[in-house]
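I am still learning, so can you show me any protein sequence you like together with the matching structure tokens, please?
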Amino acid sequence: MDALRAIERRGEMRALLEQGLPLLERFPQAVPLLQMLGIAHARLREPAAAAALFARVTTVEPDNAAGHVNLGNSLRDLGRRDAAIRSYERAIAIDSGLAQAHFNLGTVLYDLGRSAEALSRFEAAIALRPDYAAAHAQRGDALVALSRAEEALGCYRRALDLAPDMARTHNNMGMALRLLGRHPEAIAAFGEALARQPGHDAARIRRAYLRARICDWDAMAEDAARLPALGIEGPPVPPFMMLALDDSPARHRLRADRHAAANFPRAAGVETVPARPVAPGERLRIGYFSADFHDHATMHLMARLFELHDRAGFEVHAFSYGPASDDPMRRRLLAAVEHFHDVRTLDDQAIAALARRAGIDVAVDLKGYTADTRSGLFAGRAAPVQIAYLGYPGTMGAPFIDYVVADRTVIPPDHLAHYSEAPIWLPHSYQATDDRRPIADRPPRRADVGLPEQGFVFASFNASYKITPDLFAIWMRLLDRVEGSVLWLLGDDADAAANLRGHARRHGIDPARLLFAAKLPVAEHLARQKLADLFLDSFVCNAHTTASDALWAGLPIVTRIGAGFAARVCASLLRAVGLPELVTDSAADYERLAFALATDRAALDAIRARLATQRATAPLFDSTAFARHIEAGYRAAHARRLAGLPPAPIEIEA
């Protein structure tokens, strides 16, 4: 019925235009008629035509505040946000009591990442209209963006008191609760969103992801049949969470394509930035963009690359839109790069413009579609060449990302159709590593970390959302078959730990054989991994930084190579460290190999000895060679752009 009514409304709007446009020819300055026809075009999603009519309103009546608001709305829909801001500001200057103008200005500022300014506008709208439910909800969104999620909850509750059926507000409240680590409450909020809007697929994915996060697999069964189609049928969805829920690079590509088209509809029409000829002796300017230039997994991998960049050939810039910090990883970055740009307060367009003024030749997006992404700045073309790297293990499906740094394991040649970007294939592994990562000098004893003094220790320090029921069943069979063995997992989520113990009990395994590691500083965490015997990888989404950690600490990993990028990372690392025999092709082979190593101490000790030796010589931890290889990739991509050639696969030789 809703769809039928929408069709009827469109028919009514079209009829209104057919009747009204001839009248407009007779009365070209009739403001009510201009407004009415402009609204008809707006409802028919014809913003250019609407904007033209509303502009005429503001010409005929320059002090018509509603006309400026309507014009701002159409300009916003056309992607002309700066012009929309001016229209809203003009409306407010005419009538400062117009709550709608304050609210609409706030929404544009929020979309541009100017959350502090947006917050003040939402508060102004609420002061004028205390019962303005949408303004309370958007105030909550701005507070979340400003890392004030606890305060945001009060805004969402007030909005829901006023308008309890707003699915969007329930969804956004769920996201705030998730940020606060209150996962069961977040799951309930996403459920409320779905109760009011069953087609809210983003809420469905977030609920499924959080259920995976707390290992509530029984509840996940509710959506299991629908998950593969999410983001492909129906509305676009955030692609990142599906990487851990669905190992299909073909579907990942479809989701990413649709997400990019919906969120950056005008990116394909953005004029490209001309490449700058780099004369002999001149340096290529590389810009790295991230919210994670602090004590974060990205920096633990990237820090050494920043230090090893060839200063004679490259001028390195870091554009940080994450939190300010003064931790050791941030200090390493500041010492390593020539130019550090704190762009937290700038919107996407301003960041892109700053990068262009700095003459960046190659922009490297270290976030992709992960948390705190600012993909919009690349949609506006920050540089002639734009490359996705490290943070997002998949395709972005975006016309503005030219290349993705990869290797032939994570993106084999027969998978190119699943990526909108051309790969830059590095010769060994795509993943940067730090050959100076400190490991605590004195590893603890087993008793110090709650491990039994005797018995085989299987470990998996992957995030809990990566554990799937089929994988867990294998682990339980291993515990059952290897007498005295235990499984050592991360203990960062009490709900996940409780659920995993319950699942173990169902498999007939004493829950006490599941041990959970408390959070420790990285150097200490690396040291304690030496106490484990064998790392068991996850399937749909492998260990990534976690795998690098384990191998650097000398802990062998058994993995199963999957289909998508995220499911092939550990295989890439094992091959690059010289242990390809630990890569299996099926769940059955994975289980057989893990059991064989757990029951053949001599074989496992030989592998551990090889890892200890090869750690110093294998390509995986040769940070200097890696720096030269990725620099060669940047040069090759820039050379193609300079020659007027479209992106195409680039292979870097060892």
